[in-house]
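Q: Sequence in, structure out?
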Amino acid sequence: MEQRILMPYSVEKNLDIKEKKQYYNNLRNYCKSLSSQNESTRVMSIGQDAISTFYMKNFYNQMLKIEGENNLPNEPFILLCNHSTAHDIFSMYIALEKLGLPVSVMVATDCLNPFSRFVFRTAKSVLFNRNNKISAQNSVLEASATLFSWKNIAIFGESTWNLHPTKPMQDIKKGASQISAITGFPVVPTVLEYIEKNDVFDRENEIYQKIVLRFGNPYQINPTDDLSIKTYEMQKKMEQMRKSIWIENNINREDLKFINSNIYLNHTYLKKFAVFGFTYHSEYEAQFLRSNDGKEIENEYCMNAFHEFVPGITYQKRK
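A: Exactly. Output:
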């Protein structure tokens, strides 16, 4: 695959309408040529089926509630999802399997152990390294080629977990908008919400009451659109969707005064350090957070030496 085939967005914004159309037409033809080299992907992969079977038996059971499936287009689509736990990737594979639809999830490999990488390769995930711009660019092209092979794509635009106690979304990147502009296929804003029990626990899989996955109305992105504006519009829609789920499930996260710090700290610790195959390294992951307004980014809270609930990292306890 060619390197640097995608322009930096700062350069792309300076193209006139005719140049933008030609640029995206070239990308579209390139990705179609990549898809023609692949086998047809209209059916679910063995890995997607295996993940769904294992997780449904051992974690999800009847917890997963799918809503808004009528919003899914009758053509390949990009699912733009929020990201808050180690289960999100599996949730997308399981949800689409339950709906009888094939999906390939874009997965960052720089934070995975070898076993996890093997699992996601088996599921035909689009793998990339967040520390490598060429790898990230190529993943956009691979995802576009996958869509042309009639397989849907799921992408987590926040790039890392949002662990903030009140903020519904961290700012998202333009990958989904760019894939839509290349392929002409729509983006479906998608929200995963893990409804948590109001108690402290010893095991991570005990904290969830149910899991809601809600599909919103599709967005069509054109090559001449400002991708930053379109991405911002979809982010705001996803924030509204997530807040609606909170309201419907009597969850009040409007202000820190409504957050039970002991429950938040207990659940966040278990999410970060008590999931098989995953450990969330907050300091490492912080580099992948982005802010549209240039402000310092808060992503989680901790208890400081004065027993105050403040922005900060809770570290893993030594055994």
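The two ends are 46 Å apart (CA to CA).
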